[in-house]
Every structure is written in C-alpha cells, then in structure tokens.
Amino acid sequence: AAGVIQSPRHLIKEKRETATLKCYPIPRHDTVYWYQQGPGQDPQFLISFYEKMQSDKGSIPDRFSAQQFSDYHSELNMSSLELGDSALYFCASTPGPVPGGELFFGEGSRLTVL
Amino acid sequence: DAKTTQPNSMESNEEEPVHLPCNHSTISGTDYIHWYRQLPSQGPEYVIHGLTSNVNNRMASLAIAEDRKSSTLILHRATLRDAAVYYCILRIFGNEKLTFGTGTRLTIIP
C-alpha cells in the first residue's frame, strides 16, 4: 500500500541558508500534519492543513512557512536556518479530519544545519 | 490539551506479555485515547485507539478503565521488534492533531 512520501530524506545546510521539505500524502488523504523532532526529544507539532487551508498551528517559528497544494502535497519552507533547526521532520496524513482516526506518518526528513 | 502520564521506561522479556500503563485523569468525554510507537530513526506508527470500550487489533489490546482516567496497552507476546518508545496520546474531538508527551521506552530482553 502507498505510504506517506517525504523528500529529501537527508539534507545538509549551512546556517542562514534556506531549506524546503516536501510531503506527499497517501492518495485521497487531504489532511497533512508536520512535526519536528529534535535529538532525544519527542515529536512537536508544527502545523497542519486540511483541503489546502491551514487548519492548526503549533510551535512553528516565524522563519518557517508551509502550504498545501492542489494535489494535496505539502511543502515546509525554512529560512535563516539555525543550528537548533537540526532535527527530524515528519509529515503525517489522514483522509480528512476524522475524529479518532489514525495518522499515517512518513519516514521523515533529517535536516542537519552546520 | 489534556495530559497523559507514562513511566519513562520499562523492560520485558521476549515472548512475554507487556502491559504499558497510562494515566489521563483530566480526560474529557470526547477525548479518544491513542497509542503510537516510534522505532529508532522511524516515524511514529499507529498502534491502537479507543474511546470507552476495550479494543483489540492485530498489534495489541487496549484496556480502558471504567472511569476512563487510565488505560493500559497490552502487547500479548513481545518480540525484539516491539522495542520502541510508546506514546499514549489524548486526541481531542475536533482538534485532530496529536500532541506527543514523554512516552515509555520499552526494552525487550532476549
């Protein structure tokens, strides 16, 4: 079965550079969530989209922005990168905001900022 | 968000049942109880969820206390592949994101 696809899987950037992470949800899933997981930490919710509109916002820095496109894929744009942005970034998708439903996570994109 | 409390770590022998507890004393009537697990360097993986009644699936069982203030995830026969961090999460009706707390790191002893 198709899963959530994230790209790139690994990314190395310098401080103050910009990075873009992409998430392709499972077909017919219209809701996407982004999470950040720093080293040794638990996943932290960043932002979510439902039907191409932002549906919720968590602890996402102002330097970060995200959007969901007409084909439901989503991109997380990170500018002025800092060392503390080094983390695993996970994307998850669901078939709409189903109460109590399951979130399907991708394998993550590992960002390293030097 | 309503909070959950889990032990930081647990150990279990391979091929034995494992009971992972979770306290959620501030749960409200419409909060679903979700369990996810995360294997090293992988994304979180759904395990099971429930609202009021006990639930079973191919991976595990979820036992929910009658007052819903606690629950227990049961792995019936642990394998080495079950070694992971297990998260108990309350999912609020109408607020579909998952808020991860500090889960239980489960170690399986061969």
Choose one word for the global shape of chain B. globular
Tell me the number of strands of chain B: 9
Instruction: Calculate the mean pLDDT score of chain B and round it.
Output: 92
Question: Uncertain runs of chain B with pLDDT below 50, 5 residues or more?
Answer: none
Overall body shape of chain A: globular
| Count, helices of chain B | 0
What share of residues of chain A is helical? under 10%
Number of helices of chain A: 0
Please provide the ordered H/E string of secondary-structure elements of chain B. EEEEEEEEE
Radius of gyration of chain B: 13 Å
The description of the largest β-sheet of chain B is: 5 strands, mixed
**Gap from first CA to last CA of chain B:** 38 Å
Task: Note the quaternary state here.
Answer: heterodimer
Explain what the structure shows.
The complex is a heterodimer of chains A (114) and B (110). Chain A contains no helices and eleven strands. In chain A, strands 2, 4, 5, 6, 9, 10 and 11 form a seven-stranded mixed sheet that branches. In chain A, strands 1-3-8-7 form a four-stranded antiparallel sheet, with no helix packed on it. Chain A is mostly beta strands and 114 residues long. Chain A is globular, with a radius of gyration of 13 Å. With 110 residues, chain B is mainly β. Chain B is built from no helices and nine strands. Chain B has strands at 9-13, 18-23, 32-38, 45-50, 55-56, 61-64, 70-75, 84-91, 104-109. In chain B, strand 6 and strand 7 form a beta hairpin. The radius of gyration of chain B is 13 Å and the shape is globular. Chain B starts with 8 loop residues before the first strand and ends with a strand. Chains A and B meet through strand 4, strand 5, strand 9 and strand 10 of A and strand 3 and strand 4 of B.
